[in-house]
Design goal:
The complex is a heterodimer of chains A (162) and B (309). Chain A is built from five helices and no strands. Chain A is mostly helical and 162 residues long. Chain B is globular, with a radius of gyration of 23 Å. The longest helix of chain B is centred in the middle third of the chain and has 27 residues. In chain B, the strands form two sheets. In chain B, strands 1, 2, 3, 4, 7, 8, 9, 10, 11, 12, 13 and 14 form a twelve-stranded mixed sheet that branches. Classes of the chains: A mainly alpha (162), B alpha+beta (309).
């Protein structure tokens, strides 16, 4: 989890540094953000946050019921525990749930920031709002791929055990 | 002089299975090679109804005279005997290979072709077969008219060559390493399997077998490495792993650590030679081949078990 956050933070800093270097003068960004981005970013992230919140519940509950609680999965876990006693039944699911929770939280924070800090007509404030939006977007893309990979494993599991 | 049955394993490159290679060899009456300054004849036959191919490697010596030491009237005398013009002095090495697993037994005695030399000769045979197959494929695809990219693609289909490994008991490894001229690397398999918990995904069915390869700087003293590798093997109680090196002729040699008997049979040379009056064409019906087959059947866990290495 920390690895994902650090990678996202690094990527965000690189992109924001790029904006800072290539937009000359930097004050130009305040008007562009106010006219074209603020409203869209607010609406987009609020919608995404709400959508992801319902998706999170669905994914986590379905994965728990159909994969983690399956007798075959528990038997496989017991076998692997002979090699590594530290394995946990719901550890991966809990971490996935945490990541999705943070994705929802960051989406809401980003949406709120657009209509609070984003109203300040200062390029520092605008860059902070843009950085938050970029960071959340990266986290969302990673979550999307993790959900896909979980679904793939779920279908593979069903294929092998049904 | 003792004759010993030594264990080895063969693996082939891409596109040619060991079975098809041995089958092609068995169709030829015999292969002739020059190796180590001697003419060598290599013959292979399929043992009907079994998973094994038997083979014979004959080394033809070019000297017509040999010396004998005789005691006459209380003193030792040297007599030089000349053999007939149509006769040759020879050394023989029988071998047996399981076509499915690649594991085999090589009969060896002092002065006969070493296991490494045998591997080298088999590689020559493999490479000449491979070249022939590639040539046929190129001809089938259009011969000289096809592009160089297409030729490269055909060649890539048959990447790699025949590799041989000598099966060695962990305790014997140090002595054998000392016989090498240089050591390139030491690869060891940890017997512990790992089952790591995925961070975000359900647990899969695969466990990881840990394998480490240590490469050494060129010119590192062999004696020092041999004792250090021996110490590691003893300390970790390793039952599998490989040592990559070069022998005194500069030929690559791989020693494969295996929990196998020291050798798969030991015979007195005179006893064995007494049972060897045979026609070359019928070498696969000799007593030695039957003994090799018996030794392989007594160790099915080595010669008949397929591995993923």
């Amino acid at each position: 989890m920390i690895k994902i956050i650090l990678i996202s933070l690094f990527a965000t800093l690189v992109i924001v540094a790029g904006i800072y270097i290539y937009v000359v003068p930097i004050d130009k960004i305040v008007m562009f953000y106010g006219d074209k981005l603020r409203g869209n970013l607010f609406a987009g992230f609020l919608t995404l946050g709400g959508f992801l919140f319902s998706l999170k519940t669905f994914i986590v509950i379905k994965m728990k019921e159909n994969v983690y609680d399956h007798a075959e999965y528990k038997r496989n876990l017991d076998e692997k525990k002979r090699l590594n006693p530290n394995l946990t039944l719901y550890g991966p699911l809990q971490r996935l749930s945490n990541l999705l929770f943070f994705s929802v939280l960051f989406s809401i924070i980003t949406a709120v920031l657009q209509l609070s800090l984003g109203l300040v007509e200062n390029w520092h404030a605008v860059l902070v709002c843009l950085a938050t939006a970029i960071f959340t977007l990266i986290i969302l893309v990673i979550s999307l791929f993790l959900i896909k990979s979980n679904l793939d494993q779920w279908f593979g599991f069903l294929e092998n055990n049904e | 002089m003792k004759v010993r049955f030594l264990g080895f394993s063969f693996s082939t490159g891409d596109g040619i299975t060991l079975e098809s290679f041995l089958k092609t060899m068995s169709c030829q009456e015999c292969y002739e090679f020059e190796h180590g300054g001697y003419k060598r004849l290599l013959m292979v036959r399929d043992i009907k109804g079994k998973d094994y191919f038997a083979g014979l490697l004959v080394t033809i010596k070019d000297n017509k005279k040999f010396c004998e030491l005789k005691e006459e009237g209380g003193e030792l005398k040297v007599f030089v005997t000349t053999i007939d013009d149509d006769s040759h002095l020879m050394e023989f090495n029988f071998f047996l290979v399981n076509k499915l697993t690649g594991f085999g037994i090589y009969q060896h005695y002092h002065n006969s072709c070493s296991l490494n030399g045998f591997g080298h000769i088999c590689r020559k045979a493999y490479n000449s077969e491979k070249d022939l197959i590639i040539k046929n494929d190129i001809n089938d695809a259009g011969g000289d008219t096809i592009s160089s990219t297409k030729i490269k693609k055909i060649r890539a289909r048959y990447k790699g060559s025949l590799k041989w490994e000598m099966l060695v008991r962990p305790e014997k490894l140090e002595d054998l390493i000392n016989e090498l001229e240089s050591i390139k690397a030491f690869e060891l398999d940890f017997l512990t399997l790992r089952a790591n918990e995925p961070v975000f995904k359900p647990l899969g069915n695969i466990v990881e077998k840990e394998r480490r390869k240590f490469s050494f700087v060129r010119d590192t003293p062999v004696k020092y490495l041999a004792s250090e590798i021996g110490r590691v093997i003893k300390k970790l109680d390793l039952k599998s792993g490989r040592v990559f090196g070069k022998d005194e002729n500069g030929i690559d040699q791989i020693l494969k650590i295996c929990d196998n008997p020291d050798n798969f049979g030991e015979y007195d040379f005179d006893d064995l030679a007494a049972k060897l009056n045979f026609s070359i064409d019928d070498f696969d019906k000799t007593w030695v081949v039957k003994e090799l087959l018996k030794a392989a059947r007594e160790n099915p866990h080595i010669f008949e078990a397929e591995t993923n290495d």
